[in-house]
């Protein structure tokens, strides 16, 4: 764990280290994380058992499994349990680990964003009330942009009309309209 943490911290990642499956479970239940790097061999339970427990509890943080055992059966089991990827601890794994972590997080982020776009598209085609469509589009845009606040303005005969907002911290409406 120490060497993995140092490798990831050198690459600019913030790392929280847990020493057992039960510690990790407690931390993950109470704190949101962008990504979990999970060793297969943990005190008290295996990484696959912890991953299955996380799934049962509805914790959907993306997981990368790390193990010293380069076994196809284990790799298949890990991927079936919901891990994004499987990394074998070979002599060079610490060098590639930051890139693998970055790619896994970007993949997860793209999947989340694609799902949000799909949700917005379904809303636009299925909602009958204009206000519901606008509210859903603005909230989806806020999440996609990771913004604190988002507003939708429509050009009408009298000028721009604010139709919907989502979140907080929308700023100065007059300046926003001028921009």
Instruction: Describe the largest sheet.
Output: 3 strands, parallel
Mean pLDDT: 82
| Share of residues in strands | 15-25%
Give the % helix. Answer: 40-55%
- Radius of gyration, in Å, reads 21 Å
Structural class: alpha/beta
Count of strand segments: 5
The first-to-last residue Cα distance is 49 Å
Low-confidence stretches: none
* Count of helix runs: 7
- Give the H and E element order: HHEHEHEHHEEH
Shape: elongated
How is the largest sheet built, in terms of strand order? 1-2-3
Task: Walk me through the structure.
Helices cover 53% and strands 17% of the residues. The chain has 179 residues and is an alpha/beta fold. Helix 5 packs antiparallel against helix 6. The chain is elongated and about 65 Å long. The mean pLDDT is 82.
Structure described in brief:
This protein has helices spanning 2-10, 21-30, 47-56, 72-80, 93-126, 130-145, 173-178; strands at residues 36-39, 63-67, 85-88, 149-156, 159-167.
Task: Outline the fold blueprint.
Blueprint: H1 2-10, H2 21-30, E1 36-39, H3 47-56, E2 63-67, H4 72-80, E3 85-88, H5 93-126, H6 130-145, E4 149-156, E5 159-167, H7 173-178
Parallel strand pairs: 1-2, 2-3
Antiparallel strand pairs: 4-5
């Amino acid at each position: 764990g120490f060497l993995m943490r140092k490798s990831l911290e050198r690459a600019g990642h913030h790392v929280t280290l847990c020493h057992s499956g039960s510690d990790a479970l407690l931390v993950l239940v109470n704190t949101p994380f962008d990504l979990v790097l999970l060793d297969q061999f943990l005190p008290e339970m295996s990484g696959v058992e912890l991953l299955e427990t996380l799934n049962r509890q509805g914790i959907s943080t993306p997981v990368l499994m790390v193990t010293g055992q380069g076994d196809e059966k284990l790799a298949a089991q890990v991927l079936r349990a919901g891990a994004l990827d499987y990394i074998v601890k070979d002599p060079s794994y610490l060098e590639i680990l930051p890139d693998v972590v970055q790619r896994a997080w970007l993949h997860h982020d793209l999947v989340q964003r694609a799902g949000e776009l799909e949700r917005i598209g379904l809303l636009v085609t299925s909602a009958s009330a204009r206000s519901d469509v606008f509210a859903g589009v603005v909230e989806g845009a806020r999440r996609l942009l990771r913004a604190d606040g988002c507003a939708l303005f429509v050009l009408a005969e009298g000028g721009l009309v604010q139709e919907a907002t989502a979140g907080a911290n929308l700023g100065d409406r007059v300046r926003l309209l001028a921009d």
